[in-house]
Design goal:
There is one protein chain. Strand 1 (60-67) and strand 2 (73-81) form a beta hairpin. The chain has 201 residues and is of the alpha+beta class. Helices cover 49% and strands 13% of the residues. It is flat, with a radius of gyration of 18 Å. Strands 1-2-3 form a three-stranded antiparallel β-sheet. It has three domains: 7-49, Orthogonal Bundle (Helicase, Ruva Protein, domain 3); 60-112 and 157-198, 2-Layer Sandwich (Tetrahydropterin Synthase, Chain A), CATH 3.30.479.20; 118-156, no CATH class.
């Protein structure tokens, strides 16, 4: 029997360890939903970097921008870390710039993380998906709704999205790229917020 891993479990593990969303999800799946065991799995994977990252206050960072060549679309993005040293790091700045470019190319993106999605929006989408699945066998309807919700999150939630440049990033999600940078710099990398501006929108 497969264990259902909830978003709350993943969030709890992320806060405890500072590992990326997908790494946490995979560790929870591997541990059958046992958080303590998942922490052990991540400790083996990330070594001594684990746990030092998540709880640390992010008081440094960078604001980067991207304006499309046409001058019709522009993005500002704020990414935070723990120290001024990393805030000036080339990889850190490149990540923020890359993020701005991704957001410029993803007009449907509304939120940084799933936690930011208002409950009423989530419920509204679920009602729509339930209506759409009404003609399907009752036992598979919840799975269909869950799958559609995940797909919708992939449209509107930044961290859940695959980067728009798959050649450069190998189909990794923004959260996986954030987690990689966090592990590389040894700091808690947090995508704080973004604003997208488009002429005519």
């Amino acid at each position: 029997m497969s264990t259902t891993i909830t978003a709350a479990d993943v969030k709890a593990l992320r806060e405890k360890t500072g590992a990326g969303m997908m790494d946490c999800k995979n560790a929870l799946t591997e541990s059958g939903g046992d958080i303590d065991k998942a922490v052990e799995i991540l400790r083996v994977k990330m070594g001594n970097k684990l746990g030092k990252l998540a709880g640390r206050e992010t008081s440094e960072g960078t604001v980067q921008s991207y304006v499309h060549a046409t001058g019709k679309v522009g993005v500002l993005v704020q990414v935070e870390c723990n120290t001024d040293f990393v805030a000036k790091n080339e990889d850190f700045i490149a990540f923020a710039k890359d993020l701005a470019l991704h957001i410029a190319a993803s007009p449907q993106t509304l939120y940084v993380s799933e936690d930011e999605v208002p409950e009423e929006d989530k419920q509204r989408e679920m009602r729509v998906f339930e209506e759409m699945a009404a003609d399907k066998p009752e036992n598979i309807r919840p799975r269909i709704v869950e799958g559609q919700l995940k797909k919708w999150y992939g449209d509107v939630v930044l961290l859940d999205q695959e980067h728009v440049n798959p050649d450069k990033h190998g189909g990794k999600t923004i959260d996986q790229l954030r987690g990689d940078l966090s592990a590389k710099t040894g700091e808690n990398v947090v995508v704080k917020r973004f604003a997208r501006f488009a002429v005519g929108e």
